[in-house]
Amino acid sequence: MKYFRHLFIIIISLSVATSCSNQENVLTEYASTDSDAALFLEAKKKIDDAAWDDAISIMTTQLSADYQARNDVKTSLMHAYGGKCGISFFDLVQALKGVSSTKMFEIALQIFQGQVTDVAACDNAVAVLMSIGTTAAQRTNDQNLFAAILGLTRMATTLKSKFDIDAAGLGDGVPDAGVEACTVSAAAGKLSDAEVDRIVTGVGLVFENLAALGDELTSGTAGDSFGDAQTLCQTDVVIPPIGTPQDHGAPMGVTWVDLGLPSNTPTYQDFGLGADVTDPIVCTTTQDADVTPKLRRIFRRMIESSTLGVGACDIADITVNYTMGSPPTISVNADCCPGMQAP
User: Fold this and answer.
1) Where exactly are the structural domains of the chain?
2) How far apart are CA 287 and CA 342, in angstroms?
3) What is the pTM of this model?
């Protein structure tokens, strides 16, 4: 027995000695407090302590350019900006489980009520995410999970900053009186185009990475709301085919040119509709520069609607009418934001 005990001690001693020898370079790398590795370790400790600004400062001003370009460093920097923005994974999961609304944009206000949030930090986190990869296929599953959470947070904090500033700016989870999404304005209670872009791309990140959220986040009321919102967003207004004048009640032999149009094969634009009327709707748009005017209009109506948002209008109430005047026109009338171009 003593023989085997001594043999065991010898083997362990040799293993430790060999291990220490192999780790010499690693330990040396961290021995210098101003090395990239040591600084990055310090930054991660700051993240663990929720010292977001300190972590961000280390990673953006003290690390070498080559080290800043590493994927793991970018991921940690994204997490630090996300934490400053207001992301707490545990709190967010609990908040999503506890929401009482079935409307995506009301849910967004409820999950961050009473919390300090920072919209600019969310913007910075998204910028870092896009430097890692502009599509889900270019990122890891963990990065895509964070992307979905980040998108939800960016959308929610932007909306909260304009629509729920009660309680000294912390919000009470209820839309403030007089808020509306139809008017393009940077004033309180309204949304500028830049703010709508943030909301669109935030929701786009959620839609793009909805599967990565897993059952815990997407089950129940919140999950159903996100799925319903994506379906509704992708449902375009159906504009009837132009056809012939006779399809719209004109006498036989009358042509579109006779009625004042420039061609007998007119486009929807010839009838007065916008140039983007037939453009596709991409609800998974994740970069501000790619948000189209049509997508902004759709989101303004979604936010204003009683189905998903904070208003009382019926987003499904959209009518298309041909007027056989000279020239003929097509009008699209929407219950939500009726003064805004449709679709």
Assistant:
1) 70-232, 240-276+316-343
2) 23
3) 0.84
